[in-house]
From TrEMBL:
Pfam families: ABC_tran. GO terms for molecular function: ATP binding; ATP hydrolysis activity; branched-chain amino acid transmembrane transporter activity. Belongs to the ABC transporter superfamily. InterPro entries: AAA+_ATPase, ABC_branched_ATPase_LivF/BraG, ABC_transporter-like_ATP-bd, ABC_transporter-like_CS, BCAA_Transport_ATP-bd_LivF, P-loop_NTPase. Keywords: Amino-acid transport, ATP-binding, Cell membrane, Membrane, Nucleotide-binding, Transport. It comes from Glaciimonas soli. GO terms for biological process: L-amino acid transport. Residues 7-241 form the ABC transporter domain. This is ATP-binding cassette domain-containing protein. CDD domains: ABC_TM1139_LivF_branched. The keyword ATP-binding applies.
Length: 242
């Protein structure tokens, strides 16, 4: 079939000193897919994302990570920005003393197509109307949910070929969580390829095409997201049902 691999992970292992946080996992994301990686606290989800972005100093990383067909394990994260891999980390990391507008421009710093950048600011302001209303406001004055939206919009300004989202719903009110997932669906519907790490398994599987479950450093289940929502084991362990 015509599926194009954007990300392919094979046999990934990560150890922090004596602690084996990731114990040999396979995972792939195809072009245009929204794939979610779910699992309990400490399962190794964030560590997996950090392995992809090459932000695991002083760790033993084994296995293979291919991004757009190229091996990237050990690549410096700055180079990954140029290759259009964007990560929105847990805790967001917006530039609090810059305006919302300036934050968006920072997301486009590797681009030099002025007209395209302006068009993208308009595009993402229409997806994130809350940000448009507050364009001149300092990012540090935004609510947690608004900062999450800004971090996503900023990442999208880099025209990512793969967008990595680490627990975007973390610490947000239920209404804001719904809004964030609405935005994730909208972004995915634009054809952007997304790997979403989430503890909110239900919302993540409802939004995703495919899902992976991680438990104690291993992938214990994977498949079609809708099928996983109906799986009795997933229901009992991750959805608080059954
Ligand atoms: P969470 O949802 O809590 O972030 P997670 O699934 O993302 O969980 P990781 O953050 O990847 O899990 O952590 C996996 C394991 O690795 C945990 O046991 C954690 O304590 C350990 N770990 C993470 N970072 C480090 C570190 N810098 N040094 C030592 N151990 C670490």
């Amino acid at each position: 079939n015509a599926l194009t691999n954007v990300l392919k992970i094979e046999g990934l292992k990560v150890a922090y000193g004596g602690i084996q946080a990731v114990k040999g996992i396979d995972l792939e994301v195809n072009e245009g897919e929204l794939v979610t990686l779910i699992g309990a606290n400490g399962a190794g989800k964030t560590t997996t994302l950090k392995a992809i972005t090459g932000t695991l100093p002083n760790c033993k990383v084994d296995g293979h990570i291919h991004y757009l067909g190229k091996a990237i394990k050990g690549s410096h994260s700055f180079d990954l920005v140029k290759t259009k891999l964007a990560m929105v980390p847990e805790g967001r990391g917006v530039f609090t003393r810059m305006s919302i507008y300036e934050n968006l421009l920072m997301g486009a710093y590797v681009r030099d197509d002025k007209a395209g950048i302006a068009a993208d600011v308009d595009k993402w302001f229409s997806v994130f109307p809350r940000l448009k209303e507050r364009a001149a406001q300092m990012a540090g004055t935004l609510s947690g949910g608004e900062q999450q939206m800004l971090a996503m919009a900023r990442a999208l300004m880099s025209h990512p070929k793969l967008l990595l989202l680490d627990e975007p719903s973390m610490g947000l009110s239920p209404i804001m969580v719904e809004k964030i997932f609405e935005v994730i669906r909208t972004v995915s519907a634009q054809g952007i390829t997304i790997l979403l790490v989430e503890q909110n398994a239900k919302l993540a599987l409802q939004a995703a095409h495919r899902g992976y479950v991680m438990d104690s450093g291993l992938v214990t289940m994977n498949g079609d997201a809708k099928a996983m929502l109906d799986d009795p084991k997933v229901k009992a362990a991750y959805l608080g049902e059954g």
